[in-house]
Automatic annotation (TrEMBL):
Protein name: Uncharacterized protein
Organism superkingdom: Eukaryota
Amino acid sequence: MPPHRTWTQPEDDMLVDILTELTLEGKWKSDTGFKSGYLKVIEQKLLDKLPGAQHRE
């Protein structure tokens, strides 16, 4: 099991912004939730917008 990681407020805010962005784009949203592959898109957007966040413990 991976270690627990606590997100910072800026990381939380950025995640909400990215989820909103994906929803408004319409390309990743379906009637029952997000389409397959959306997690990789979120991960890449987080890395682009918050460089170095993945290395914080």
